[in-house]
Request: fold
Amino acid sequence: MKKLLPGFMFLMLILAGCSSGSDFEINLKEAPKYKAGESYPVVIEVLQDGEPAAGLDFVAYLEMAKMDHGTIELEFEDKGNGVYESRVELPMAGEWIANIEGEGDGSAFEHVITFEVEKE
Reply:
């Protein structure tokens, strides 16, 4: 047990260090759908301190939760009022994970969203 405590404390220190400490709240407003050969919008809303965040620069790295289809990188366009949009053509429906990394007002942020892609 004594050997596990230092390892656990080290893990907690690492996790605390990885926290961005930013006040960004990120919500998936529209998940993409799946249909072979078709691309669909991905719409994300970003709030900073409860207000729409404008002028952010961020990307999302999409990967399937339970299968290996590689990683798909999405760049988002600011549509105004805290809404950002991109398009993606996914290889299949199912559970997906978006690892979002970005920067705004000198603050870096990271956020993970898990979502379900339905077949159209």
Summary: The two ends are 52 Å apart (CA to CA). The beta strands are 24-30, 40-48, 51-52, 57-64, 72-75, 77-80, 83-88, 94-104, 107-117.
